[in-house]
């Protein structure tokens, strides 16, 4: 998904830096309840609901908070690292999934919190622009979803039943 834009940046000599939460920190993050308070309660509930839905209702409810904590910690990591990359007159572009890019749910919430704690004299982000890439059938009408500044419609892809795939994986266990 990200290979083409990342490789285009590399070929153009643009620095490419990974800013996601390191894989080795994920398990510990799941056990850190302080992440539960890192976003407003309504955002936390929306993420909990999305985690349940994106796992097809197959996860036990007791697992949902741990999974949401990873989402919050990823957003926080991407926000914090992005701030360290800001330079006057330069742009930091972050390629990420739609929930991370949603201004009302993701990185922007954590970016604002980090920017508020930035010491005087340190660069602060001036503007965040959130672009959603949305696959649609050519004859589909769509509106700009809340949480994004713009949407770039791309050709739709054939539907995939991810829930069937997940059920099959779980049955193998």
Summarize the structure.
This protein has one domain (3-126). It has seven helices and two strands.
Please specify the SSE layout and strand pairing:
Blueprint: H1 3-11, H2 26-30, H3 41-54, H4 64-85, H5 98-101, H6 107-116, E1 131-136, E2 150-155, H7 162-172
Parallel strand pairs: 1-2
Helix pairs in contact: 3-4, 4-6
Structural overview:
There is one protein chain. With 173 residues, the chain is mainly α. The protein has one domain (3-126). It has helices at 3-11, 26-30, 41-54, 64-85, 98-101, 107-116, 162-172, and strands at residues 131-136, 150-155. A two-stranded parallel sheet has the order 1-2. Helix 3 crosses helix 4 and helix 4 (64-85) packs across helix 6 (107-116). It is globular and about 55 Å long.
Based on the model shown, name its key terms.
173 residues; mainly alpha; two-stranded parallel sheet; 7 helices; 7% strand
